[in-house]
Amino acid sequence: MNQEERMYVVGSQKITIQEEIIGKRILDIGGGGEGIIGLCYGDRVIAIDPRKDELEEAPDGPLKIVMDARELSFLKNSFDAVTSFFTLMYINKDDHEKVFREIYRVLKDNGEFVLWDAIIPEYDGSIKDIFVIQLEIDTPIKIIKTGYGISRKDKDQDVEYFISIGENLGFEAIKVESQDKVFKIIFRK
Ligand SMILES: C[S@@+](CC[C@H](N)C(=O)[O-])C[C@H]1O[C@@H](n2cnc3c(N)ncnc32)[C@H](O)[C@@H]1O
After folding, report:
1. Residue 21: which pLDDT band, with cuts at 50, 70 and 90?
2. Cys-Cys with 134: which of 40, 139, 147, 155 at CB 3.0–4.6 Å?
């Protein structure tokens, strides 16, 4: 079977990044690849990603550091904001709570965690076992068309799932926007 036959494709989802993210220092989790947050917010961003090649591919501007979101090497209360742009879908669900805990720790009080991600349905055992989401991202710099893909197994997730993880750790979900199969949640510490 070829790759295309295995793909469960969610077609073009539109995302606009326009609102200002609070504060001077932003930590972007999984900031490699297209590096959308680094592109938009430049040298205010520290982009971490365990994959050096993904960081090298991302646009210049941020300080890029090879690091895993499950174990951040920063001291507590270090950042005004933390962002995750379609990164949590790449991280096993078993590790989500650990990542949220780390984000909470490194955020300053009243700091914000801005999470963009996909709504992924439960895997039904079909041959379409690769989830692909196609995005059209409207940034203040340019429009970027891209797609992110992962194995579907044990990856089902939605807005309520993430709000529950965040609130159990002490975050307050202060803004929730969802449209079709993508969402944005702003959590405040
Ligand atoms: C495809 S990118 C998502 C989009 C990316 N944020 C952007 O702006 O283009 C997902 C990234 O998450 C990274 N990632 C996977 N596991 C991670 C982890 N445990 N901690 C931090 N980043 C991780 C991957 O290496 C990959 O670069």
Report:
1. confident
2. 147
